[in-house]
Design goal:
Elements (H helix, E strand, L loop, with lengths): L3 E5 L3 H12 L3 E6 L22 E4 L6 H11 L3 H8 L1 E2 L4 E4 L1 H14 L3 E5 L10 E4 L7 H11 L4 E7 L2 E3 L9 E2 L9 H4 L2 E6 L1 H13 L20 H6 L27 E7 L6 E4 L8 H8 L10 E3 L2 E7 L2 H4 L5 E2 L2 E6 L9 H19 L12 H12 L28 H28 L1
Parallel strand pairs: 1-2, 1-7, 2-6, 7-17
Antiparallel strand pairs: 3-5, 4-5, 8-15, 9-13, 9-14, 10-11, 11-12, 12-13, 16-17
Helix pairs in contact: 1-11, 2-11, 2-13, 3-4
Length: 452
């Protein structure tokens, strides 16, 4: 049997899958089309490049399902999580990273591994033989997407993913803006002051909403429909759902006190998060958009403190394609019609960097077990990793399948814990305690199986 594992795509999932398989002794080839074939969102040919936010979201492994997924990946020697912590930026309890050094480190680690090689080429058809993982993410090339669609005899599902703009810090008016994380969250002063805040009065907010609604937007191509994932809605789409929607979303004013005017509570607040270690770049949190570039500059400069803002990158929009995994994949993440091919990452219908890398981690380990003739016990669905893979490979309703972030709603219920909002802290801690024990037991058993 050919003991080479081929991985299409060098994003979060492909990079993590390669790392896991190579560390287990397999020879791995990563097939990455960049930089020869570019995408709308990528800027470099680096593996593990972050194309949207620079945040891996909450790092709280006791009260947050994403933070628990961080913890599980660290326990499994996950490349993405270890590298993220190496290039961490203050973010008030979230795990944000300096995106360019992060991707450079991921690339260097993979290229330095004796079991890994990188082939820069576009794969345009489904491989007939060999062992493969397809981890091409939301920007799967047109030719490969057509090949997948032809094989599955199903319409490709798609939504539109929007990118938030990045502002040069030196162009922000700090006489208006101030530094503070919501509720002063964080263990260090850097964490407690990780976000830059721009306050709005009611009149300023209303004018901003009017401008959002009236701004010129990117037109969709013929045949495209805007099926957005709720976790990544463009701000103008949120505004269309109701004038107060943004005040209860990314512009909520709670947990913040204006350092320049402590007595007056802002009606709304726009937050920016540091995007690099130097602190020269800040991204506007939750402000992914499909407005045209000229409109973006005009509308965003209405934000108090950003009147003279200079943009390192404006927002954008791109198509995000994923398969109907509950109908197409088995519990080993293999394509039912071609079991020599696994899928991993966002193309499977998980949403977010963390979830994508996690599915890469599992796909890599599952491939190792199969290619070395070992059986791999199912990942307990009581773990963050197991809850997520169970959801996409059969737990979700196929007819209404949409991209999903990891969340405690995917976990089996616990007996003997309080339900409702008041019991949430105790309940979440019980979920994470159970998950950690079960994840460590599963990892321990897989290591024993490998030793045998």
């Amino acid at each position: 049997m050919d003991k080479t594992l081929n991985i299409i795509g060098g994003g979060m999932a492909g990079s993590e899958a390669a790392w896991q398989a190579a560390n287990a002794g397999l020879k791995v080839v990563i097939h990455e089309m960049r930089p020869k074939v570019e995408t709308f969102a990528h800027r470099t040919g680096n593996l593990g490049e972050m194309v949207c936010s620079n945040s891996f979201r909450s790092d709280d492994h006791e009260q947050n399902a994403v933070g628990l997924l961080h913890w599980e990946m660290m326990q499994a020697d996950g490349l993405i999580m270890h590298t993220a912590h190496k290039h961490r930026l203050p973010a008030g309890g979230a795990l944000a990273v300096d995106r360019d050094p992060f991707a450079e480190s991921v690339t260097a680690a993979l290229k330095a591994h004796s079991n890994i090689s990188v082939s820069y080429e576009e794969i345009t058809a489904l491989p007939e033989s060999g062992n493969w993982i397809i981890a091409t993410g939301p920007l799967t090339s047109g030719a490969l997407a057509e090949a997948i669609q032809a094989e599955t005899s199903a319409e490709a599902l798609a939504f539109f993913d929007a990118i938030a703009p990045i502002v040069y810090h030196e162009s922000i008016n700090m006489d208006v803006a101030w530094m503070q994380s919501r509720y002063d969250k964080g263990e260090t002063e850097a964490e407690r002051t990780a976000y830059l805040n721009c306050p709005m009065t009611k009149a300023q907010y209303e004018a901003f909403i009017d401008a959002l609604l009236d701004a010129e937007k990117t037109e969709f191509k013929e045949g495209e429909t805007a099926g957005y994932f709720d976790g990544c809605l463009p701000i103008e789409v949120m505004a269309e759902r109701g004038r107060e929607t943004l005040r209860f979303g990314p512009m909520k004013p709670v947990g913040l006190t204006n350092a320049h005017d402590p007595q007056n509570k802002p009606y709304a607040v726009v937050q920016l998060r540091r995007d690099n270690a130097l602190g020269t770049l800040y991204n506007i949190v939750g402000f992914q958009t499909k407005m045209k570039y000229g409109a973006q500059k005009a509308v965003f400069k209405m934000i108090p403190g950003l009147e003279d803002a200079e943009f390192a990158r404006l927002g954008g929009i791109h198509r995000n394609t994923f398969i109907n995994s509950p109908t197409l994949l088995d519990d080993q993440m293999r394509l039912r019609s071609r079991p020599n091919i696994r899928f991993a990452g966002q193309i499977t219908g998980v949403e977010g960097y963390v979830e994508s890398a996690a599915m890469g981690l599992l796909a890599g380990r599952m491939a190792v077990a199969e290619m070395t003739g070992r059986s791999l016990a199912p990942v307990p669905n009581t773990t963050a990793m197991g809850a997520l893979v169970t959801h996409i490979t059969g737990g979700a309703e196929a007819k209404t399948f949409q991209p999903m972030n990891v969340n405690f709603g995917l976990f089996p219920p616990l007996d003997g814990v309080k339900s409702g909002r008041r019991g949430r802290k105790e309940r979440y801690k019980a979920y994470t305690d159970r998950a950690k024990a079960d994840w460590q037991a599963w990892l321990g058993q897989t290591m024993l199986d490998a030793a045998e």
